[in-house]
Amino acid sequence: MLKRYLLLLLIVLVAGATSGCGFKDIDRRFFVVGIGLDGMEQGDKRFRLTLKLAVPSSQSESGADKSQVITQDADSVTEAVRLIKSRVDKELDFGYAKVIVLGKNIIKHDLRDTMDWLIRRRDIQMIAWMAVGDPSAEAVLKLNTRSERLAGNALMLSFGRTGVESGYIVSQYLFDFYRKMRELGLDPVLPIVQATKSGYSINTAVVFNYHNAQMYLTKDETRIFNVTFGSVSKVEVEAPMGDEHIYASIDKVKTSFKVHTPSGEKPYARLTIHTDGLLEESTVPTSPLKLGEYEQVIRQTGEKRIIELLQKFQKAGLDPLGFGLDYRSHHFQSLEEEWNNWQRIYPQLEFRINYDIKLKSTGVVR
């Protein structure tokens, strides 16, 4: 019996000794809250890696966040991480990195090597938010907004819509971005975070194909894309009434579409958008009795602008809404046959929009 207890005690001691070798206490770790990757246009290195490290603090009010930003140039992301480790006194912990920013100069090139590192590392969360940094990922991560209570929290609140809700912000997870880059018939879109002197702005986006950036969207195009894709619940729309304008606040958006390929007829995509809202601003006198007239004006303007954006995507050979994926889901052929047929169909695809808007009121003004 004594031998059994001694053996059990020995096993516990050995297990404790071996497990302690790979574990670091919290006070011996740096928590990475943001990762930035820029391409090097000058010099002999390929990448510039920027890490935003959270520094623990006893204060939690706005403006009390503490962080440290470290950059390193290298020929690979792995090498850059190893070199950064030689410059800090604590172990790097990537498990809390919720924002990954790609610089504008790196997205012009093939991203498959860069994405390989992000996907392979087991300690990087697949639900991290992806974005493009303007003018660079380093400039975005170096920003410290006065409203932040935690290091890097401002971007997380913006993309997660747990703070601000804007019709101009496109949100994209790491796993979803990687999936769309590899998926035939669905192209990814990333938001652009523009660094300014007072903070940052997020109101434009960029469309990718299977390996790099292809098309930059304006502010209005980004808002229209969000409405068309149905990725936002709150957005503002504008429509002209003669020389004047009306503005509606939309608080509910529901979108669906399907690709039709009737035999002997021109293929078309039927896109249906249901929205609810109310008038928020008008430069002309309004009346609750004319809600149907206002709905008609917004409907006609919305359909026209959506078709123009879809045709722009079509002309560039891009498909961020996933019409090609919908076509493939209804045609059961080999992968090569499906994709070749869609490549032939998409340039001649006609877009038919059913934009339904229901205005609840003209606001509190009668």
Structure summarized in a few sentences:
Helix content is 32%, strand content 30%. It is α/β, with parallel strands linked by helices and 366 residues long.
Explain the overall architecture.
The protein is built from 10 helices and 13 strands. The chain has 366 residues and is α/β, with parallel strands linked by helices. The longest helix is centred in the C-terminal third of the chain and has 26 residues, at 291-316. Strands 1, 2, 3, 4, 5, 6, 7, 8 and 9 form a 9-stranded mixed beta sheet that branches. A 4-stranded mixed beta sheet has the order 10-11-12-13, sandwiched between helices. It folds into 2 domains: 28-217; 218-365, GMP Synthetase, Chain A, domain 3 (2-Layer Sandwich). The chain has helices at residues 2-22, 77-85, 112-120, 137-141, 153-160, 174-182, 219-229, 291-316, 323-329, 335-345; strands at residues 29-39, 47-54, 67-74, 91-93, 99-103, 129-134, 189-195, 200-208, 213-217, 235-241, 244-260, 268-282, 350-359.
Mean pLDDT: 88
Question: What coarse outline follows from CA principal-axis ratios?
Answer: globular
Q: Tally of extended strands?
A: 13
Helical content (DSSP H or I, runs of 4+): 25-40%
The portion of residues forming beta strands comes to 25-35%
The major pleated sheet works out as: 9 strands, mixed
Low-pLDDT runs = none
Query: Secondary-structure element order, as H and E?
Result: HEEEHEEHEHHHEEEHEEEHHHE
Q: How far is the first residue's CA from the last residue's CA?
A: 90 Å
- The domain count comes to 2
User: Can you count the helices?
Assistant: 10
Question: Which structural category fits the helices and strands?
Answer: alpha/beta
**Measured on Cα atoms, how large is the radius of gyration?**
25 Å
Family: Belongs to the GerABKC lipoprotein family.
Keywords: Germination, Lipoprotein, Membrane, Palmitate, Signal
Pfam families: Spore_GerAC, Spore_GerAC_N
Subcellular location: Membrane
